[in-house]
Each structure stands twice: as C-alpha cells, then as structure tokens.
UniProtKB/TrEMBL annotation:
PANTHER family given in the database record: GMP SYNTHASE [GLUTAMINE-HYDROLYZING], GMP SYNTHASE-RELATED
Binding-site positions, Zn(2+): 742, 755, 913, 917
SUPFAM superfamilies given in the database record: Acyl-CoA N-acyltransferases (Nat), Adenine nucleotide alpha hydrolases-like, Class I glutamine amidotransferase-like, DNA-glycosylase, GMP synthetase C-terminal dimerisation domain
Species of origin: Helicobacter valdiviensis
Annotated protein name in UniProt: GMP synthase [glutamine-hydrolyzing]
GO cellular component: cytosol
Pfam families: Acetyltransf_3 (PF13302), Acetyltransf_7 (PF13508), Adenine_glyco (PF03352), GATase (PF00117), GMP_synt_C (PF00958)
Length: 1230
C-alpha cells in the first residue's frame, strides 16, 4: 500500500483536492482528511509534511474551524494555504482582520529578495526596560568581539571599559540585536544622532551583519538629522577601517581618560543621506562571508572593486611574477576575467580569491586553479600575486598556507602543485619553505611565447580521510583498481540507467578507473563506487565531475533506480558538493529527452538554465542547475520567477505576522502573500498555489513537498491500479494478498513488471497492438528479456510504433536503424516490420481496426487456461495456427504460429498465468464467491475505466449495466455497446428505461429537482435490474464512476460555502437499499482517470472522450425535458462534435456540448419570418474540471458550426457561444 507523504487537512475549500492533484503529478502520494482529524490518526499515517487547506470561514469568528493544535508539535513541515495561512498567523499571535474588499482573481507575486548573504539573520529590537534580560549575552558578545581589536588595553583598563559599555547599554532607549538560529551575531545601540555601540561577534565579521544593523537603525530610529556621529579607539584599526568603508570621516582626535591613563579616540561623522544611499546600494553586495580566515587577514571572493588594484599591480613586471594574461586587462576584458574567477569558485569550490587585511585593505590575490603538470595530467595549483609593499611580510606565506590547507582538508587533495618561472626566485624560495620539491618542467604559452616553468609539488603529510558517504540504502566509497572486475560485470550484464558512454569505458576500463582515482586524489572529485548496503552488492557509480561546470553524475542499475536509490545518492552528492567542497552551484547535464534524469534533477531542486548543447542531429544536452541555499526560505520559492501570476480568493487578510515569522512575498493588494517561521518549519501562502491560474503554484507545492519535506516521488497510476485491484479482490472475493508469480518472471525487476502489469492483460490500443506484433517478430531466436531491455529504444527508433509512419520508411531509414546499437539490428526483421505496418493498415481499413480483427478470433473474450506448471503451457495451439495462416495469407511476415501464440499471450487474448500466480485472471475463480458487483455504466471515460478495473479484479463477478435513460446523445447507446463488446471484452447488460425517466421528468423545470429525480430513478432501475440477477448470486455492491470534482461540488460546508450542485451518483444510497457503494475513482481527477485507463491497456479513443454528465441532456435543456426538445438538442450537439473532429479541435478542448436555452427569438429564413429556439454552444479548456476557461475557438469555425445548425436543424434560428469561465460559472448550465 502507498505510504502517505503529504497529508492535507481540509477546511472546506472547493480547491482542496487540487492540492493533492498537483502533488501527485510529481509522484508525491498525498491524502486528504477533514481538518478535525485526530492527532493519533495523523501520527498513524506518519506524513512527511502537512498542508492546511483553504476554507470559507474566518479565524476570528466564534466556532472557526481549528485542527488539533498538537500538529505543531510533530516537528514536521507545515504549509498553510489561504484560510490555513490565516489560522497559522492567528494561532501564533499575529493579527487577522476582514479585508476592506475581497481580493478575488489574478495577482502579481513579488518575492522578497532571498539574498544568500542574509541567510537566517533576524533583527530584534529591545526596549531599555528589557535590558536586564539580555545584559549578560550582550556583555559576553562585547568581550568576545574586542579580544582581538582591543589588544592595546591593559587588563584593568579593559574591565573599566566593560563597565562603561554596561552603563551605555542600560541608558540607551533601544538596543537592536542580530541573531540566527544558533548565536547572537551582534548588536547596535545609540541615542539621537550618536551611534554609541556597534559590536559584532568575530565569528560573523565580514558577513554584512554590521551594515545590516546600521541600516536598520537608520531606517527606524535616526530621523531628522543630517549627520551621524560615532567614535573609535585610534589603535582599533579594524573598527576605523569598517567605518571609513561606510563613508565616515575623521573630524578630530581627543583623549579618553581611563583610570590613570588617556587613550586617543577618533571622532567620526557621516552624512546620513549618503550613508543610507551607500548601505542600500551595497546592502546585498560585497558582504559575503570570508572563504578563509587567519589572525591578520582574510581570503574572500574577488569583487568588481578589486579590478583597479589588480590592474595597477599588473603594470609592475616585478610584482607580476609568474602571472600573465593573454588579453588586454582593461574593461570589458577585466570584467570577463573576474567573471571567470567567480564562476570557478561557484562551480568548483575553488578559484582565485582576494587577500585582504582585517581593516579591509586589498593586498593581492591568492587561490587554487586547475593546472597542466606535464605528461598530459592536471592537478590543483596554488598561486598568489601580492602587492610589492607587502613582500617580505608574513602575508604571502599565510595566504598560501590557508589555500594549501583548504586544498587538503576541503578538496581532499593528496598533492598540490605550483608551476613557477625559472627566474622567479622569490616564488621558488616560498615553494621550498613549504617543502615542495621540483617534480618536473613544463612550458606555458603567453603572448605566443613559450616560457619554461618548473613544477613543484607538495604531498600531504596528513593521512587522507577515506571517502565514505552513507545514505539510507547505499554506501559510496572511493574507486580502487580492484573494482575493475565488478565494474566490467556491471556494464556487461546489468540493465543500467545513465551510462551513455558504456562502450568507451569498457574499452579502456583499467585506465579509466586509474583516471578516476587520480581525479579524486588531485581534485577530490571523480566517479566513486556505490554499494547496496543491505546486499553489499556493487550497483553503480556516482560522483562529481568538473567539465564546464560541476556536474553530479550517476550510473546505476535499473533495479536500484526503480527503488529510488538515485534520489538519495544525488542528494548525498549534492550535500558533499555544498558542505564539504564549498561549491555554490551544482549541475545535472541530461539528454533533453531523458525524462527520468530530468525528473530526478528537478526533484532535487534543480531548475532549467535554458542552456542546451547540440551533440549531433537528434541529440541535445539540457543543463539543469541548483544554487546552494541553506536558508529554507529560498527552498519554498526556489526557481519561482519574480512577478509570476497567483490566484487570490479571500475576504480576510493577515494584518500583522507573528513573532518569529518573516515575509517571503507580497502582492499589490496583499502585503503578506507568503510568510514563514524557518525555525519551526512553518510556511503559509495567502493565495491558491493549487489552481492552474497560479502559473508557478505547482512548483511551489513541489518545493514544499520534495525540497522541504523530503517526500518520496514514486507514486503513479501503476501503483494505484495494483493497489486498487488488490483492494477490490479482497473486498469482493475475500482474496488475501498473494505474492507468487509465474516461474518465468524470475528476479529481474523489468521482467517482473512486465509479468505483473502487461502479460496476459487485455490490450486494445492500436499502436500498442502493432508494437507487440513487431516485437514478437524481433524476438524470434532471442530472449524476451533482451527485447524488454531495448523496448524504449525501439519505441524511439520506430516513432512509437505508429503504423502510418513505419509504413513510409525507406532505404535511408532502414540504414539508420541498422546503425542503431540500442535496438536489435536484423535487416530482415526491420524490413518485415515495415511490411507488416502496411498490412496492418490494410486490416484497419477492412475491419475498422486491427483490434476488432484480432479479437474477433476469440469473440472479444479472453481464453482463460488453467495451467499448474510452466511445462503445461504450449508453444502454439490450433487457434494460433489459424491466426498465423490468416496473417500470412494477408502478407504479414515473421508471424509463425509460435510467435503468434506469444503475441496472443502478450495482448491478453489468452491468460496463461499459472493457477498459483497472483496475476491469474479472477474470471477463472468466479466460483470462490457468490457476491457480485453491479456497475453503473454510462459509456463515458469514468464508468468505462471503473468497469475495466473491476473486470480486471473480479472477472465475471462483475455485472456491468448500461441504462438508456432516453437522455443520451445521438448514437450513444450503440457506440457504448460496441465499445464494451469489441474493445474491452466486457459483457454489458443494457436496460432501456427511457420512458420511465421521461415520465418522471414531465413538468419538472427546477435543475436541482431534475438532478434529484434522475439520481433516485437511476437507483430504482439498478435495484430492479439487481433482482433479475439474484439467481446468479447475491449482488452486494454497486460500483460507480464518481470522481472528486463530482464529490466536492456536492459537499455542503457550514459557513458561507454552499452546495454548488448535486450529482446524481454521489451521496450514497437511500436507506432502503441494501447495496454497499464502491467508488474506486472517488479520489481521482479526469486526467488521472485517463492515465489509469492507459495503464489498464484501454484504447486512446475511449479515454479521450469528453466528459458527459450523469443526468445527460436533461441538464442541457433549460426548463422541462421532453422528447421533441431532446431530439432537437441531439441534432445540434452532433453537428458541433462532428465539426470539432473535422477541424482537429476535439482533443484540444476539455469538454464541448450544446445547451437548448428554450428562449425564442425572431429570425428570417429565406423570405419568411421565424420565431424559433436558441442554441448555446459551449467549449471549455481545463486540466481537472475544478477550474476551467472557455475555449478560444476560431471565429470562422464557430461561424461554420452556427450555419450548419441553423440550416440543418429545424426549430433553431439563433446560435450563441458561451464565454464564461469556471469560476464564476460552472461547466454545465444546470
């Protein structure tokens, strides 16, 4: 059974189910429960996250809906939507009020910039009355802050100043404190136009905390002054440097008496207007934390402001040393060079950086880069460029030491190199200090001149930490040469996901492994070995690679991929790149058509970069990128474009957010559109991300579920079908879960999947029938497993087995197929496939479909055999002989009797599953129970899928009944009967109850009364039909094709929300009936139902039929329903649908129909005046039926439809087109 990933608490919004719908699109299994679900029930489901839905009530009203408050103690992420957001804000102490005007419709979402430099920084103001509560923390921070910068003070003086700081803190009205989850980072305090105190914890210096505090103080407290004043000890060069960078200027120096001494104090002043402009302009720039720190200097990223210093240094040939550049170092070239350095650090975790003193003076460059070291090898090189005035100081050595340490401990390099000019004695001397012996010579080319260099190498004396990354199911370790045999076996004998260069690796396997080992030793990257933790079995390769970017690479067995191991491996490697390697970005480079790889990358938070790289005529790589953000704020809105459209629908708003929450986004009318408490992992949105009108809403829900909650993404319709069939078997037949398979299924997952979900299951889709015919021919003389492993490649190569396309293949196409290594390359078999496509089309032309022809041999009913062992199953039968001969007579090739019997097994014409197999058709075991299921069939997609699902589960215990209500469209009854007989092979019972329905509807005009009458009559007819079948066994269940949009529109929630409309097959059965209701599709949307139908092998033309309401044409006639009006409406509707098909528009709209308005108007036909009826034509586009927009059909098309209706249907003289969307309207008129 499926494990709940996200649990939605429903507060009564008509959009609630859309939340689950959106998340299911991403494979996240989501369930919905009422808002009052008990905490014990929620704990039992053990979800990874909770969503509080929208709702109609107001949180401040008496009796407002409230969930169990214990959900906030579960320590799992929670997301509130609309009412859910208002409840969260209200519960945690925020303020929710009635909005001045209801906000309904589209709004523009403005995301509050999520700057990496602001991660987790919270600014809190304290009134002086609260000082006793924070005094101890503030003084401890002050003491920690001045340990380095106040080293000129004696201990007794230090204590005296501490008392002065205490007094200042106590006397100032406001103290502003910066903090994050772990620490107090700094504080600021002042009075009027004087900044008294500003101290930052050493741990958070150079992170922009001081500027942030100052900016906050200026915005909130320093008003109506021209200047801001402060002071600083003259010997505190670090503090003076900070203030000077902000634009403060020294105005004088005076002495500060402390006990018996005097210390010089510098008084500084800044123009407040300039200071505000500077802080705002630089608020999120040049404030990044240092990469490396030492007592006297820091190493940070290079910035644009450093270019002038660098250009000046390059003018001194002595200073340049080994540095040369192959382009003119002036703008824009200088900026280009800077971009390269910044990109290198961002992509690979190393590059060239700036060297800076603690008081902010730029003194040079230092860093790591990839360098040729001779013998066609590369390694990590350490290098520096220091201003001349700092030669002879400790700065060059300290900078190089930090870089070497970083290479060893962060990048796991065993060796670090330096390529130095032969005449650069200073650099060579420094190499010797670091005990780097010369290991070779190379030439570097500068300005078309080759300059000899010596290569020096430092070998780490530290014992290298073995690579060991552990996930839930796997272990990643460094490759060793002894792995060659298991790698070879892996590539040769396993089905693999992700290996596009398998042949190249196998050709030089040992050399390839040695190269990957060197990559790890030299760069800390490369391919590593993956082992299944439970089986201690080698299952693939994974790692980081430096190409144009840093790339996460995974090659894994198909079995492990199907178990979602790739997700946890990619997550672990991403963490290694960000946390261990220090990268700012990682990339996934996928084939553009590799859906599995692209989906995996996106599930990790990667977003499209719109960069593609052509690799031949039909191959392209797509680059997907994820930026490292430790701030959970950015995870919720990761990849969401600025100013996207969202859908608002609320009458209340959050006026004040609770303490501990931050604002994530706003709109023009709603200040708090999205908020979060990062510590508690609680998020909230005022808009509806679940509706299609919110253009990035699905991505936001995905971000919450996958990136924040860590939800699994493996749920799909295959699992739904398996679970639902098992549940139906247990409910109706009393079957317990059987796990046995036919012996031939083996342990290969691809074989087991084929056995469980395809083999022996009735198949009627034309393309899939042609596919199986071709593949059975391709198999001749080979293992079926070989064909299965190449199936996707075959589909790609043969245009998804479209017989119309295959029939047109020429010699050039045949030659291309013969060069395709991914398929079975047999010239005769390929030519036979083309021939068979032509013959296939001929059969379609003669019989209407190949399905009708082939299933006619068994009269549309599968043959159920009862074999005990695999030896009992024949290779061919007299029937396969007959079909084979007929196909050969028609010109088909590779259709021998053995191949045809295998074909019959594969498409479900025969069920040869062993009696002990869990997949044995239930038709064979009907005698197990006398309980039957009466299934209501309308001929639409929903009821057809229900009938197919039930037939798959319980076989002939199903009694499918089709009721002709007299309210059907033209030809509907005949089409439904033919469809069930010819396409599904499901026996259908038709009941003509048209006179009963029309009789009960006589004189009725109210739409709700019509629906109620139709629903009650429907049940009465079924009960009467049930009594007829009691001789076959007691009917205990009634099955219906109810979908969630039907249910949600029939639910009445206390409060402003009302029942929108009732549905004839919703709400259970009257008390006097004895049937138990079965609604297997009750939690699905229309597109999910179609996907389920495809999984069950139903033909596409059945699945793409437009929805048709249970009450039929009765709710498309305004007023009383009678036979004359029904015939009139049928004629109009038939013309409209016919024209949609004719113009290839039928599949482009969600639903299309006509409505008879029973409104007459004056018209002119020929020379005569008319006074006839008006027909309304309606077509809508939708994804799920919960919301819809009218279809923008071409005017010329509508004009043609109107002309045909008026000319061909007597009694109609006017046609109108409905351009109302849902909401505010509904799709149907009644």
């Amino acid at each position: 059974m499926n494990k709940v990933q996200i649990l939605v608490l429903d507060f009564g919004s008509q959009y609630t189910q859309l939340i689950a719908r959106r998340l299911r699109e991403y494979g996240v299994y989501t369930e919905i429960v009422p808002y009052f679900e008990s905490i014990d029930s929620i704990k039992a489901r053990n979800p990874k996250g909770i969503i509080l839905s929208g709702g109609p009530a107001s949180v401040y009203e008496e009796g407002a809906y409230k969930p169990d408050e214990a959900i906030f103690e579960l320590n799992i992420p929670i997301l509130g939507i609309c009412y859910g957001m208002q409840y969260i804000a209200h519960y945690f102490g925020g303020k929710v009020i009635k909005a001045e005007a209801q906000e309904f419709g589209k709004a523009i979402l403005e995301i509050i910039e999520d700057k990496e430099d602001d991660e987790d920084v919270v600014l809190t103001q304290f009134h002086y009355s609260e000082f006793p509560q924070i005094a101890k923390d503030m003084l401890e921070l002050w003491e920690e802050s001045v340990k380095e910068s106040y080293n000129f003070l004696e201990k007794s003086d230090f204590n005296a100043i501490k008392e002065m700081v205490y007094g200042e803190l106590k006397s100032n009205e406001t103290i502003i404190v910066a903090s994050n989850k772990e620490d107090t980072m700094g504080f600021i305090s002042g009075k009027d136009d004087v900044l008294k105190l500003l101290f930052i914890s050493p741990k958070y210096r150079f992170c922009g905390v001081g500027s942030k505090l100052l900016n906050y103080a200026l915005e909130h407290y320093v008003k109506d002054y021209k200047y801001l004043y402060t002071n600083c000890f003259l010997d505190n060069t670090q503090g003076i440097g900070f203030f000077k960078k902000l634009g403060f200027k020294a105005i004088n120096i005076e002495n500060l008496p402390i006990k018996n001494k005097s210390y010089p104090i510098v008084n500084l002043r800044a123009d407040i207007k300039y200071l505000k402009e500077f802080l705002n302009a630089n608020r999120y720039r040049n404030k990044k934390a240092p990469i490396l720190r030492a007592p006297e200097l820091i190493i940070r990223e290079l910035q644009h402001k450093d270019l002038e210093d660098i250009k000046f240094s390059l003018q001194d040939n002595d200073e340049v040393g080994t540095w040369r550049f192959n382009f003119d170092f002036t703008n824009p070239n200088a900026q280009e060079w800077l971009n390269i350095q910044q990109e290198s650090y961002k992509n690979f975790g190393f590059g060239l950086w700036a060297l800076e003193t603690l008081d902010g003076e730029f003194i040079g460059q230092v860093g790591l880069n990839i360098q040729d070291i001779g013998n066609n090898k590369k390694g990590i090189e350490v290098a520096c460029l220091i201003k001349k005035e700092y030669w002879g100081t400790s700065y060059p050595y300290e900078g190089l030491r930090l870089c070497i340490r970083y290479a060893i401990h962060n990048l796991h390099c065993l060796k670090i190199y330096a390529a130095l000019r032969h005449d650069d004695r200073g650099a060579i001397d420094r190499a010797k200090v670091f005990e780097m012996p010369c290991v070779g010579n190379i030439s570097k080319e500068f300005d078309n001149t080759k300059i000899p260099h010596s290569v020096f190498c430092l070998t780490s004396k530290h014992e290298r930490t073995e690579l060991f990354i552990e996930t839930e199911h796997t272990i990643i370790r460094e490759l060793v040469i002894e792995d060659a045999l298991v790698v070879k076996d892996f590539f040769e004998n396993q089905e693999i996901v992700g290996a596009n260069n398998r042949k190249a690796i196998l050709d030089k396997l040992e050399a390839w492994i040695c190269k990957e080992i060197d990559n790890y030793h030299n760069f800390g990257c490369g391919f590593w070995a993956i082992f299944d933790k439970a089986k201690d079995k080698f299952i693939g390769l994974a790692g980081l690679h430096f190409t144009k970017v840093s790339e996460v690479s995974i090659i894994i067995s198909k079995d492990a991929f199907d178990k979602n191991y790739a997700n946890e491996l990619a997550e672990a490697i991403k963490d290694y790149a960000f946390k261990t390697y220090g990268m700012k970005e990682v990339h996934s480079i996928c084939y553009a058509d590799n859906k599995d790889a692209c989906l995996l990358a996106k599930s990790l938070g990667c977003v499209e970069t719109n960069i593609t790289e052509e690799l031949g005529e039909d191959i392209a790589h797509s680059y997907l990128c994820q930026t490292h953000r430790s701030n959970a704020q950015s995870l919720l809105l990761n990849g969401i474009k600025q100013h996207s459209i969202v859908w608002m629908s609320h009458a209340d708003k959050v006026e004040e957010i609770p303490h501990g929450f931050i604002e994530l986004a706003k709109s023009g009318n709603t200040h708090y559109c999205a908020i979060a408490n990062l510590e508690k992992k609680i998020y909230a949105m005022q808009f509806h991300p679940e509706v299609v009108h919110s253009e990035c809403g699905g991505d936001m829900l995905k971000n919450f579920a996958i990136s924040i909650c860590g939800a699994d993404t493996s749920w799909n319709m295959k699992y739904f079908a398996e679970n639902e069939i098992a549940k139906l078997k247990e409910k109706v037949l009393g079957d317990t879960q059987n796990t046995a398979r036919c012996d031939w299924a083996g342990e290969e997952k691809i074989y087991q999947d084929y056995h469980d979900n395809k083999w022996g299951k009735p198949l009627h889709d034309e393309k899939r029938l042609f596919e199986m015919l071709v593949l059975e021919g391709m198999q001749a003389g080979l293992s079926w497993l070989t064909v299965l492993k190449k199936r996707e490649a075959f589909r790609e190569a043969f245009d998804d087995f479209d017989p119309h396309k295959v029939a047109l293949y020429d010699d050039k196409k045949i030659e291309a197929l013969m060069q395709n290594e991914k398929i079975i390359r047999n010239h005769a078999k390929i030519e036979s496939a083309i021939n068979n496509a032509k013959r296939f089309l001929e059969v379609q032309s003669e019989f209407g479909s190949f399905d009708k022809y082939i299933w006619g041999f068994v009269k549309n009913k599968p043959i159920i055999n009862h074999f005990q062992t695999i030896k009992d199953i024949p290779a061919s039968t007299p029937l396969s002989d007959e079909i084979s001969k007929d196909l050969q007579k028609r010109g088909f090739k590779f259709v021998g009797s053995t191949s045809i019997y295998a074909f019959m097994q594969s498409i479900g014409m025969v069920d040869d599953h062993l009696e002990s197999c869990k997949c044995k058709s239930p038709i064979a075991s009907s005698s197990k129970t006398t309980q039957k299921v009466l299934c209501a069939v309308s001929g639409g997609v929903d009821s057809s899928v229900v009938a197919t699902l039930l037939y798959r589960a319980i076989g002939e215990n199903l009694i499918p009944v089709f009721v002709d209500t007299g309210l059907l469209r033209a030809g509907e009854r005949e089409a439904v009967e033919a469809m069930f007989r010819e396409n599904l092979g499901v026996p259908l019972i038709t009941v003509d109850a048209s006179e009963i329905f029309l009789g009960k509807l006589k004189g009725v005009t109210d739409p709700e009364v019509k629906r109620k009458i139709i629903g009650e009559t429907f049940i009465e007819v079924f009960e009467a039909e049930a009594k007829k079948h009691n001789a076959k066994g007691e009917i205990k269940f009634l099955a219906q094709g109810t979908l969630y949009p039907d249910v949600i529109e029939s639910v009445s929630v206390k409060g402003p929300s009302k029942t929108i409309k009732s549905h004839h097959n919703v709400g259970g059965l009257p008390e006097w009936m004895k049937f138990e209701l079965i609604e297997p599709l009750r939690e699905l949307f229309k597109d999910e139902v179609r996907a389920l139908g495809r999984e069950l092998g139903m033909p596409e033309f059945m699945l793409m039929r437009h929805p048709f309401p249970g009450p039929g044409l009765a709710i498309r006639i305004m007023g009383e329903v009678n036979k004359t009006d029904l015939d009139l409406l049928r004629a109009c509707d038939s013309i409209f649908i016919e024209e949609l098909h004719k113009h290839n528009l039928y599949n482009k709209v969600w639903q299309a129909f006509c409505v008879l308005l029973n409104v007459k108007s004056v018209g002119v036909m020929g020379d005569n005046r008319t006074y006839d009826n008006t027909i309304c034509v309606r077509a809508v586009e939708a994804l799920d039926g919960m919301t819809a927009t009218f279809s923008h059909l071409p005017h010329s098309f509508l004009e043609g439809v109107a002309n045909r209706i008026i000319n061909e249907v007597e009694g109609i003289n006017r046609v109108v087109y409905d351009i109302t969307s849902k909401p505010p309207g509904t799709i149907e008129w009644e």
